[in-house]
Specification:
94 residues, mainly alpha, two-stranded antiparallel ribbon, 4% strand, elongated, IFI6/IFI27-like_sf
């Protein structure tokens, strides 16, 4: 692996980990709950309608809300970093 590939992987992983909480907040998954009128609110509404009035535990909306309120867990941080690193690597192939 050459230096540019290593830098791209590192930048991708680091950028993904740093930007994940920012993106969650931007779409409405905030530390105080789901922001009214946001994309997250429409996701929550659709999930509640699909599940008969409540959001199912472990659903995408529930997991994203948990990450928005409490931050990413260690496992989630590793997963986001891995995906970011993979994207960085793939960018070197283009």
């Amino acid at each position: 692996m050459d230096l540019m590939t290593a830098l791209a992987i590192t930048a991708g992983a680091g950028g993904a980990v740093v930007s994940a909480p920012i993106v969650l907040g931007a779409v409405g998954f905030t530390s105080v709950g789901i922001a009214a009128g946001s994309y997250a609110a429409s996701m929550m509404s659709a999930a509640a309608v699909a599940n008969g009035g409540g959001v199912a535990a472990g659903s995408v909306v529930a997991v994203l809300q948990s990450a928005g309120m409490a931050g990413l867990s260690g496992a989630a941080t590793a997963a986001v970093g891995s995906v970011g690193g993979a994207v960085g690597f793939l960018a070197t192939l283009i």
